[in-house]
Amino acid sequence: MTLLTPDQLEAQLRQIGAERYHNRHPFHRKLHDGKLDKAQVQAWALNRYYYQARIPAKDATLLARLPTAELRREWRRRIEDHDGTEPGTGGVARWLMLTDGLGLDRDYVESLEGLLPATRFSVDAYVNFVRDQSILAAIASSLTELFSPTIISERVSGMLRHYDFVSEKTLAYFTPRLTQAPRDSDFALAYVRENARTPEQQKEVLGALEFKCSVLWTMLDALDYAYVKGHIPPGAFVP
Ligand code: PQQ
User: Fold this and answer.
1) Using a 6 Å cutoff on CB, does residue 177 contact ligand 1?
2) DSSP per residue over 191-224, as a string?
3) CB of 180 closer than 6 A to ligand 1?
4) Could you give the count of Cα atoms lying within 13 Å of 213 in the half-sphere of its Cβ?
5) Tens digits of per-residue pLDDT, 210-222?
6) Ligand 1 binding pocket includes 202 (Cβ within 6 Å)
7) Which CATH superfamily is domain 6-228 in?
8) Would you say the ipTM is above 0.90?
9) Domain extents for the chain?
10) Ligand 1 atom 5: the closest Cα is on which residue?
11) How far away, in angstroms, is 151 Cα from ligand 1 center?
């Protein structure tokens, strides 16, 4: 592998997103096009809760490894975005407003009892990746957020149009993400462009983004298999 310029590296990262980001997954297409019933949407929100709930732990793991106050200050804001600054605020609390709005019992959602095994494995793999890999790879693994504003806009407009059981209030989780995600991914992209200086480091960065796309993809494969194809594993949420 030859050394890429920062622009070439960014182009390859964007190419990975264009090919592998979870907006292309059939389950998301069905979710956004109104092809799922309420129970299937509940299963999506319940499983995705685990992703949301572990994101601040993922970011705290990385925060602890960052070498400078400047980097830690930047990363600390992500934890506040998700955990809030007081009870009832932040992204995780807003996700619970979505599961409430879909009629799921809050204690049941927070207990994690109904998760699909693959949801747990995928999300845990992401947290472990950020713990175990280089700081460069860990930061690069957040770069899926480059692509999330587009899918979030599609999701919110599609779901509001097609489902009478969701409202702007229940989908309020997504509104702040439209400004938080670009801010976060701009920082991560600038870091990666600046710090991936050898072919090996560039390969690591590209591999980290592919890995993260696989995390997101696997969660949707599992939802599709269980709740569209009908093979619900023992112990998982039964609508
Ligand atoms: N990704 C992260 C991360 O890797 O640190 C944090 C988030 C995402 C979020 O807080 C999100 O809400 C989010 N949402 C979507 C989505 O709705 O499709 C995707 C992603 C992503 O691409 O990882 C995140």
Assistant:
1) yes
2) HHHHH--SHHHHHHHHHHHHHHHHHHHHHHHHHI
3) no
4) 21
5) 999 999 999 999 9
6) no
7) Heme oxygenase-like (1.20.910.10)
8) yes
9) 6-228
10) 142
11) 10
